[in-house]
Specification:
The protein has 144 residues and is an alpha+beta fold. It has a domain of 96 residues. Helix content is 17%, strand content 22%.
Length: 144
């Protein structure tokens, strides 16, 4: 079809409104409250530490009592974390302690390779605890 002179051809554009549901994800911060004893402290004596270990040993265990257990979800690091929380719940300060080839601060505490146990301060020294065996070892006087 021939257009009359002086006219131009224009495309007709049609706009259409489309409604579509789009999922919206909301990230919400949630405050987690954990009651921590106000006076968390180190053990006052070796006997107090030994009693706490005796009363709690065996309540938290790893999947294997073998030092060669390689369960990445339940190994010595995980156990040390759980014991730190347990001690804190009871009002005591206990920290994870790295062990390399059975040694901590030049003291043989047993084991092979790289492990994580626990230690705490009593008086002017540190004591190591192997949670799998329950064995407690004095690391020596390291503070004045």
């Amino acid at each position: 079809m021939q257009l009359p002179p002086g006219t131009i051809e224009v495309e007709k554009v049609v706009y259409e409104t489309v409604t579509q549901d789009v999922p919206v994800y909301v990230i919400k911060e949630v405050e987690v409250v954990r009651e921590i004893p106000i006076e968390a402290r180190y053990f006052e004596s070796v006997k107090e530490f030994e009693n706490w270990v005796e009363n709690n040993h065996g309540l938290i265990t790893v999947g294997s009592t073998s030092f060669t257990s390689h369960d990445p979800l339940n190994d010595c690091e995980d156990q040390a974390d759980r014991w730190q929380m347990r001690a804190l719940d009871d009002g005591y300060l206990v920290s994870a302690c790295p062990v390399k080839n059975g040694m901590v601060l030049d003291t043989n505490v047993g084991g092979i390779g790289y492990l994580v146990g626990l230690w705490t301060s009593i008086g002017n020294g540190f004591w190591y605890w192997e949670p799998v065996t329950g064995e407690i070892t004095k690391l020596g006087v390291v503070r004045d």
